[in-house]
Amino acid sequence: MSKVLFGLHMIDHPQQQQKGVYRSCVSTQRKRAVLSCFRQASLHSLPSLSLIVLLLTGYKTENKSR
What we know:
Layout lengths: L1 H11 L15 H13 L7 H17 L2
C-alpha cells in the first residue's frame, strides 16, 4: 500500500530537478477510487494470525501452480 501512496504522491509532486520528463496527471477521482479500494479490504483490521494464514495459503497455492 505504501508503494501505491508513494507513486500517487510522486505523480502530484514531481522532482524539480527532472526537467523535460513526461508528467502524467492522475485525476482526483482516480486517487479516491484507489484509496477506497484499500479501505474496503483493510488488512490492519484483521487479526494478525488470520493475516498470516491468509498470506501463507496464497503463497502455497502460487508456488504449487508453477
